[in-house]
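Hi R.,

Quick one: here's the Nitric oxide synthase sequence you asked about.
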Amino acid sequence: MTETRTREAQLIEAFEELEHGANMAWRNSIRCIGRLFWSSFQVIDEREASSADEVLEALRRHSLPMEAKSGRR
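And here's the predicted structure, written out as tokens:
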């Protein structure tokens, strides 16, 4: 595992490692009916968000384009 930096004694993985881990976790989740679509899972790195407002803004940036793609609101 590549260590990019440590913060408060926690290992912070490189983005590629987080993306791969999230994809494998979803693919290997036996009870998840949506696991067949694991390869389309999109990981967005928003680890720098440190306040509730920053997290909310990151969610809005991520969810609005996804909703536009599917045609749902």
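The first strand starts at residue 3 and ends at 7.

Cheers,
M.
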